[in-house]
Amino acid sequence: MTGQDISIDMKRVPRHIAIIMDGNGRWAAERGKERSYGHQAGVESVRRITSECTRLGVEYLTLYTFSTENWKRPADEVAALMGLVLSSLEDEIFMKNNVRFRVIGDIARLPQAVQDKLNETMEHTSGNTAMTMVVALSYSSKWEITHAVREIAAGVAEGTIDRNDIDDEMISAHMQTSFMPDPDLLIRTGGEVRISNYLLWQIAYSELYFCDTFWPDFDEKALREAIACYQKRQRRFGKTEAQVENNE
Ligand code: IPE
Ligand code: IPE
Ligand code: MG
């Protein structure tokens, strides 16, 4: 299924899509398999959705891959996930799709081999221009905000930041996501209707889309459905419907 049958306006494709890729474990359980089998199938979904996003002209795709809270999972599952991150970071996929790779999160907590591979992939793909794929690893929003507050507080203490200059923009500049615009569309697969500590600052005005499909089943058609739903909405940013229609 390529999803070509779902019509979307190519001129109004979201610039930045963020995804909470949930439901791998339940997908595997339905098939009587181990959770790691679901994570493996999830990697295939990442490949499909990345290619489709580049075809659609999405500029940034931010994927929640492993949260700060996920460190609490059984050690064997954490190890399987780290192994998958390592094995799935093949240059070929990024080079074939002309995708730049970036990572956000508390990278220092990851195994050294994973850190090395992440740095290597970021370097190799830094010149690619079709899309930026951002992987959130050992990431949580509260961790990120805490980190930013510490940095700003240090600046104030050293006298390099005047506390009266602290504003929305400065705070954004101290986030891990400072190199990209905020998400236009946030998708969560897997049926849960929650944010799970993801991009809390950045999704202040994102359009939210929740679907029941487990991540391994989320395909091109499902993505196009999410974009079509996004395109039916009017983003008002506090203004009235009439103001937005009149471009005020
Ligand atoms: C999401 O799938 C992937 C990660 C959190 C790593 P889950 O592993 O949370 O799958 P479910 O929610 O248990 O089905
Ligand atoms: C959110 O999924 C994190 C990722 C998709 C990486 P979880 O499955 O960990 O979320 P909760 O704990 O059910 O909220
Ligand atoms: Mg889950």
From TrEMBL:
Mg(2+) binds at D22, E207. Catalyzes the condensation of isopentenyl diphosphate (IPP) with allylic pyrophosphates generating different type of terpenoids. SUPFAM superfamilies: Undecaprenyl diphosphate synthase (SSF64005). Homodimer. GO terms for molecular function: transferase activity. Its cofactor is Mg(2+). Pfam families: Prenyltransf (PF01255). Substrate binds at residues 23-27, 35, 39, 67-69, 71, 73, 188, 194-196. Binds 2 magnesium ions per subunit. Its EC number is 2.5.1.-. The active site is at D22, N70. Keywords: Magnesium, Metal-binding, Transferase. It is an enzyme of class 2 (transferase). Belongs to the UPP synthase family. This is Isoprenyl transferase. InterPro entries: UPP_synth-like (IPR001441), UPP_synth-like_CS (IPR018520), UPP_synth-like_sf (IPR036424).
